[in-house]
Design brief:
single chain; 277 residues; Rossmann fold; 10 helices; globular
Amino acid sequence: MPSPLDPADVRSFYDSDVVIETFNDSFGGLWHTPLGSPRFAGIRDVRHYLCSWLGIDPDHEVLDFGSGVGPTSCDLARYSGCRVRGLNVSAKQVEIARQFARLQDLQGRVSFDLFAGGRLPYGDGAFDRVVFFESVCHVPDKAALFAEFFRVLRPGGIVGGQDWMLPDRPIAPEEFDRYLRPIEVAIAVSLLSMEGYRELLQRAGFRRALGVDARRIFADMGMPPGGPLDEPIRVEGTDDMAARLRKGNAAIGIAYARGLFTVGFVSAERPGFEDQA
């Protein structure tokens, strides 16, 4: 189903002081769903899990797309020893992230850039890995973004991340509008299934597109409580940002309880030189 997502609304959402303060207070600066500890010995959290899953090492240049206010990028650098460039549409968040990296004494390995939209501000083959944490869901044209990920990755490079997702099953239009559209409108996202992500990655030229539901890896997904499952949330054009966040949070809880919403991981590899011979 086509998304009504407007890039200007995404930028406004993430520039909002209410959003910045709410997310920082609720998630300690980690702007993604709290998933608890993974079911793997020696893996501390989801950032550590992605470092392991994507094989990030100290020699890698990593792009953190949608890098929030800094802690995620800094954790990637700490856990793996890599160098990270964070990219964000919000000038406010970029400045907060730069200050955070300085306080963590990581400014030599972690830096942040402002994203104007469209083409990524990097040369071809600039990165070994591209990661994201619930940021691609905010992008209206995911096909164009994945083509850009392909361009900025070196041959053999890998893209992967965590995102909000729909189940891999048919959803009736009326069910989507009743339970999922309120999430999209309230929190400025456009939702796809895991299979939808894999298809777009493959269309962009990636291979070995993999996906896994976070519920298979994390025992305690921090989903918000919803409300009565047969009473969908209504988001009004007059709602202020605080009301949008409250309603979006409740809509996520209802959709998750109805089996219409989850968190998942996807990854894919850009073919290497040996595949181009």
